[in-house]
Specification:
This protein is α/β, with parallel strands linked by helices and about 350 residues long. It folds into 2 domains: about 5-175, HUPs (Rossmann fold), CATH 3.40.50.620; about 200-335, Nucleoside Triphosphate Pyrophosphohydrolase (Alpha-Beta Complex), CATH 3.90.79. It has helices at about 20-30, 55-65, 85-95, 140-145, 160-170, 175-190, 245-255, 260-265, 330-335, and strands spanning about 5-10, 30-40, 70-75, 105-110, 125-130, 200-210, 215-220, 230, 235, 270-275, 285-295, 310-315. Strands 6, 7, 8, 9, 10, 11 and 12 form a 7-stranded mixed β-sheet that branches. A 5-stranded parallel β-sheet has the order 3-2-1-4-5, with helices on both faces. Helix 2 (about 55-65) runs antiparallel to helix 5 (about 160-170). The longest helix has 18 residues, at about 175-190. The radius of gyration is 22 Å and the shape is globular.
Length: about 350
């Protein structure tokens, strides 16, 4: 009999590499069942999350399928403003695998930095801590991979063969080129304040305009997040915007051409909240003030994309796909509407 009934291994696997594989092998030695939980599911493609859950699941399965072991692969979406909801989903996955209260459960991983805080979120399970196995982390592998002169020899010794084949194929896609363009944009953007004594903090506003079960969204015209769905919003104009509300209403009008008078928009603000996760924007520390506007039931006002938007439209809230949403906008929508 092995020491544990279930061992949980959580990671983003962007990409899956040899250190991940060695940890899984260790988990399989210790447990009857290894539950591999793939985080950051349903995210749009970015430098931080370039590969979909389905792609990562397939690569992990392809790498492990010849092993004589009992394992399962599961997805878990990010909820950066609600760690308890994220942890509850992990617990539910394990409960479905082994629902018995007497089960021996462990969670395995390496405490590399503050990003490994999740290992301490499950005090009811034994922590199986493993040492650093590979010098190159997933983020360092991505830095080597997403370059115009990418050479597979830089990373071939630290990732499984199946993953290397996939990365070579992916490097020939338009998705790969789009990530390169976004990296270039962010680097140029950050170079503007590289000489500042302290990194700047940006202030933005977003509008969550809802009517009859629909939400007003735009399609982004430019980097970062070109082509993704986003809430109408933008940067506070320090010289002309008298208030955050004024900035929000200005951005809604510029980006959506919404034909609703400003007093009506102000009068229907149901709630406002600050969203300030430290890595919510690739451009730098960006704190946004989101306003939830609940318009009275009736015919949806006509809208048209303008300013930074290629298009604007009303979308049924139930049909919003988080993998098409910019930055943390899906989580902002979720906070106000409960989707």
């Amino acid at each position: 009999m092995k020491k544990y009934d279930v061992i949980v291994f959580i990671g983003r696997f962007q990409p899956f590499h040899n250190a991940h594989l060695e940890i899984i092998k260790r988990a399989m030695e210790l447990a009857e069942h290894t539950a591999i939980i793939v985080g950051s599911a349903n995210q749009p493609r970015t430098f931080k999350n370039p590969f979909s859950y389905e792609e990562r699941e397939h690569l992990i399965d392809e790498t492990l399928m010849m092993m004589n072991a009992n394992y399962s692969i599961h997805s878990n979406a990010d909820t950066i403003y609600n760690d308890d909801a994220w942890a509850t989903r992990v617990q539910n996955i394990v409960n479905k695998i082994n629902p018995f209260e007497s089960s021996r459960i462990g969670i395995i991983g390496h405490k590399k930095d503050e990003s490994s805080f999740y290992l301490d979120m499950f005090p009811q399970w034994d922590l199986v801590e493993v040492p650093l196995i590979e010098e190159l982390s997933a983020s360092q592998i991505r830095e080597l991979y997403f370059k115009e002169d990418f050479n597979q020899n830089f990373i071939k010794n630290v990732i499984p063969e199946e993953v290397l084949k996939f990365l070579n194929q992916f490097s020939k896609t338009e998705d790969y080129q789009q990530i390169l363009r976004e990296i270039e944009f962010v680097e140029k953007y950050k170079s503007q304040y590289a000489s500042f004594p302290y990194p700047p903090t940006f202030v933005t506003v977003d509008a969550v305009v809802v009517q009859c079960g629909h939400i007003l969204m735009i399609r982004r015209r430019a980097e970062p997040g070109k082509g993704l769905l986003a809430l109408p919003g933008g940067f506070l104009d320090a010289l002309t915007d008298k208030s955050l509300e004024d900035a929000m209403i200005r951005e809604v009008r510029e980006e959506t051409q919404l034909k609703v008078p400003a007093p009506v928009l102000r009068g229907n603000i149901a709630e406002a909240k600050v969203f300030d996760a430290i890595e919510r924007s690739t451009r730098g520390r960006t704190i946004t003030h989101a306003f939830h506007i609940k318009l009275p039931n009736g015919e949806l006002p006509k809208v048209k994309g303008g300013s930074d938007a290629t298009s604007a439209k009303w979308i049924p809230i139930s049909k919003i796909n988080p993998s098409e949403c910019y930055e943390d906008h899906y989580e902002i929508i979720n906070y106000f509407t409960g989707v």
